[in-house]
Amino acid sequence: MPPAFTAEERARITQILRTTGYDLFTTLGLRKTSLDQLVAPAGIAKSSFYQFFDSKESLYLELMLRESGSVKQRVIDDGLRATGDTREGLRRFLRAALDELATNPLWRRLTTHPEEMSAVARRLDPAKAATLADNPATALTEYIGEKQRSGELIDIDPAVVVGVLQTVLLVPLHADRLGDPAKLDTILDLLIDIVTQGLTRTEGEH
Question: What positions does the DNA-binding region cover (predicted)?
Answer without folding.
Answer: 34-53
